[in-house]
């Protein structure tokens, strides 16, 4: 077991671009592709981590050398042990030395694999307990500050995994797997940029607590807004919420990302009053393969804690008792959840079957007995939701169609010929502290690639149909990966329908 690498000393390993912090071996294998390329990584969180140099030798063989330390300094571990190993005051000194000299005749450290920007350092993040934003199925969220490389500071939401927190210091396999999964997801999320999804900034994973940094949305979550202002919100404004959410989901589905926890609580309202999909990817970071499924569709995790899935938002095929390999999540099950979210929006934040136990709810869903939407829901939307709630996943519309439908409905109902005018002033979104929306209809352009960012402000919608012309060929389609790079449609067991999350 090695002590923290030169933390607090003159040369801090975390400042080096070749230092990747906690990073599993398989990541190193993927990142290092040529002889001479190298990185330094920790096999776990400090202080229980080994520090390893991963490099490729001239024969293209991957070599992992564990560093050791004693009172006299750092030196190369057993595989390279000499009678009297050369010792260095810091890891940085050691690496500098072998970069100049090479580790052996065939093993040189000539080119560093650079630490990605999404691997954030804890020292650049500040948050305080008093700034807690809330707590959900997987995380506790805080408002915090993040200092960027150029010294600029931005507001962020800092999320701390509850499993990682609970397991801090215990070295449980579940905690390790959870961190690995979060890292995998983080890598993927870092490539996602769209006006209607919350921007992911990165993960601080060098030591506990593991911090996930996201764009801070001053307007909070859509559920809270609906509960507070839903009654005074015009149906067209509600359609705007759903339209913008559908654009975010359309983008995620195009990226092969299945959300699996789509609900009004996971839609956030930005400072500009734009609806953004949150918690894609993150929630799947906590996954366990041997969770036992209960009759009511909930599941218990290895620790036997009452980890339950958010049954009310789940599609019937994801609630099958004997589903092999876990619930069958897919883009089509997200569409089902979008239907439930539409219900939430038009019932001003009331979830379906608000008073009933999950066992009853799961049975109703399996039978396809879904609740009626409130009388005030526009009939077109009632029709659309009934399509989203088709028992056969393949018969459900795809996100592109849903976005297009909302776009058309908004276009028709806000056109000058409809005789009514709608402006941002009337929007209840503008009643939220810290939110300022300047147009009734703001939409992110769909169809572009993840790295580009557009903001199209359209008063009285002028989006063309071509926005929706790409991707998605069938409702259910093939079973998708959870997100790119992570296998299976299995939902994490740690989903809970707990008092402070799903039931809130
Ligand atoms: N990026 C953010 N900006 C502003 N507030 C946020 C942000 N992320 C989360 N919050 C707030 O913190 C609360 C808790 O978030 P969290 O995602 O942990 O739980 P949840 O959304 O209620 O449940 P779930 O586990 O299904 O995501 C949210 O309800 C929201 O009000
Ligand atoms: Mg959430």
Automatic annotation (TrEMBL):
The keyword ATP-binding applies. Residues 288-308, 471-504 are annotated as: Disordered. It comes from the Eukaryota. Residues 18-113 form the SH2 domain. Keywords: ATP-binding, Kinase, Nucleotide-binding, SH2 domain, Transferase, Tyrosine-protein kinase. The keyword Kinase applies. It is an enzyme of class 2 (transferase). It catalyses: L-tyrosyl-[protein] + ATP = O-phospho-L-tyrosyl-[protein] + ADP + H(+). Its EC number is 2.7.10.2. Residues 479-490 have a biased composition (Basic residues). GO terms for molecular function: ATP binding; non-membrane spanning protein tyrosine kinase activity. Residues 127-410 form the Protein kinase domain. Belongs to the protein kinase superfamily. Tyr protein kinase family. This is Tyrosine-protein kinase.
């Amino acid at each position: 077991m090695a002590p923290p690498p030169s933390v607090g000393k003159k040369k801090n390993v975390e400042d080096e671009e070749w230092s990747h912090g906690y990073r599993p071996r398989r990541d190193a294998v993927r990142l290092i592709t040529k002889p001479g390329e190298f990185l330094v990584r920790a096999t776990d969180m400090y202080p229980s981590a080994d520090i390893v140099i991963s490099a490729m030798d001239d024969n293209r063989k991957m070599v992992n050398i564990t560093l050791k330390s004693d009172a006299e300094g750092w030196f190369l571990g057993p595989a390279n042990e000499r009678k009297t190993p050369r010792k260095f005051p810091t890891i940085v000194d050691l690496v500098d030395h072998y970069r100049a000299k090479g580790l052996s005749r065939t093993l040189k450290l000539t080119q560093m694999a650079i630490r990605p920007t999404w691997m954030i350092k804890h020292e650049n993040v500040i948050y305080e307990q008093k700034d807690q934003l809330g707590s959900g199925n997987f995380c506790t969220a805080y408002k915090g500050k993040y200092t960027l490389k150029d010294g600029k500071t931005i507001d962020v939401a800092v999320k701390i995994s509850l499993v990682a927190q609970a397991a801090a210091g215990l070295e449980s396999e579940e905690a390790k797997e959870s961190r690995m999964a979060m890292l995998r997801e983080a890598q993927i999320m870092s490539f996602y940029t769209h006006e209607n999804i919350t921007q992911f900034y990165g993960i601080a994973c060098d030591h506990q607590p593991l911090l996930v940094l996201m764009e801070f949305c001053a307007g909070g979550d859509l559920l809270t807004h609906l509960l507070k202002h839903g009654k005074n919100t015009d149906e067209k404004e509600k359609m705007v919420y759903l339209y913008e959410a559908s654009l975010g989901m359309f983008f995620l589905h195009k990226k092969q990302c299945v959300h699996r926890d789509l609900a009004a609580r996971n839609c956030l309202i930005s400072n500009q009053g734009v609806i953004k999909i949150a918690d894609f990817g993150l929630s799947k970071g906590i996954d366990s393969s041997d969770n036992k499924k209960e009759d009511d569709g909930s599941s218990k995790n290895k620790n036997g804690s009452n980890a339950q899935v958010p049954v009310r938002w789940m599609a019937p095929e994801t609630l099958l008792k004997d589903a092999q390999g876990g619930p069958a999540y897919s883009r089509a099950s997200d569409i089902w959840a979008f239907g439930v979210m539409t219900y939430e929006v038009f019932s001003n934040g009331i979830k379906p079957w608000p008073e009933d136990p999950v066992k009853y709810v799961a049975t109703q869903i399996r039978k396809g007995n879904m609740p009626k939407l409130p009388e005030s829901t526009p009939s077109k939307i009632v029709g659309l939701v009934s399509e989203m709630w088709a028992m056969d996943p393949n018969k459900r519309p795809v996100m592109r169609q849903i976005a297009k439908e909302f776009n058309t409905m908004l276009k028709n109902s806000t056109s000058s010929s409809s005789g009514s005018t709608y402006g941002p002033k009337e929007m209840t979104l503008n009643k939220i502290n810290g939110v300022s929306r300047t147009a009734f209809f703001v939409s992110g352009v769909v169809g572009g690639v993840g790295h580009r960012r557009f903001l199209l402000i359209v008063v009285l919608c002028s989006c063309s149909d071509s926005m929706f012309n790409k991707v998605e060929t069938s409702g259910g389609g093939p079973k998708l990966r959870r997100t790119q790079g992570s296998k299976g449609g299995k939902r994490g067991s740690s989903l809970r329908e707990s008092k402070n999350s799903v039931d809130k």
